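Whiteboard transcription, Tuesday session. T.W. wrote the structure tokens on the left side:
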């Protein structure tokens, strides 16, 4: 691939920073509305090794939110459709697509300690809490997305320690369960202080500019961490 494809990244990060991103190993759990945009931003930033974990297939209700959700991709595994797109952006990247669910039975199969960064974009609360607790113990740097549904104002998005978030119901539930698990670690999470009631009870609405912003924040945390480690 033409080396100029990522030249503008190098202008900001320097040669050492760009090289570090190429060597960085990231595992991303959940490639829906938040995770898919995170994956795209990581690859466009020059990350060289990305493992995608999600057990779902593309459905029509994903089209308003997810990078890989197009009409031709309906019914395809999300991770496979996304991998295909990402390789069109960076053909030399190592992208591993795992169509499997993170849960209590599968959790030890992912070898989190072999990655530099673990990114949580899981929706299911019990799986999310388990992943956060395990990642905190793994030695990898963990970044987590809280609730992106029910939001319209991208200016209300924040980044903070999981223990210091305000106004996010999901983050409150996560903290409560982490305390029950006896988790003592910490991680930065992306969250929003806004919440709007849905017009249809029981189903929260979501918008691409919010889920995308959450995903870009997560990817940005990886890039900034590598930059600051070098500089």
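and on the right, the sequence the group agreed on:
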């Amino acid at each position: 691939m033409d080396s100029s494809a990522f030249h503008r990244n190098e202008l900001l990060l320097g040669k050492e920073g760009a090289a570090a991103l190429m060597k960085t190993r990231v595992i991303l759990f959940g490639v829906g509305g938040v995770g898919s945009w995170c994956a795209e931003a990581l690859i466009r930033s020059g990350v060289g090794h990305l493992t995608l974990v999600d057990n779902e297939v593309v459905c029509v209700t994903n089209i308003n939110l997810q990078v890989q959700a197009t009409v031709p991709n309906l019914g395809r595994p999300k991770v496979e459709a996304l991998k295909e797109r990402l390789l069109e952006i960076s053909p030399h990247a190592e992208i591993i697509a795992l169509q499997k669910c993170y849960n209590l039975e599968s959790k030890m199969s992912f070898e989190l300690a072999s990655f530099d960064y673990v990114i949580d974009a899981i929706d299911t609360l019990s799986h999310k809490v388990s992943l956060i607790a395990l990642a905190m113990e793994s030695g990898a740097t963990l970044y987590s997305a809280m609730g992106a549904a029910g939001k319209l104002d991208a200016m209300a998005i924040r980044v903070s320690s999981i223990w210091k978030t305000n106004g996010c119901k999901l983050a409150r539930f996560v903290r409560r369960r982490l305390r029950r698990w006896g988790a003592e670690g910490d991680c930065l999470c992306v969250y929003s202080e806004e919440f709007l009631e849905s017009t249809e009870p029981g189903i929260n609405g979501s918008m691409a500019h919010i889920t995308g912003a959450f995903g870009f924040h997560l990817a940005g945390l990886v890039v900034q961490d590598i930059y600051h480690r070098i500089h």
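Someone added at the bottom: The CA atoms of residues 56 and 143 lie 22 Å apart.
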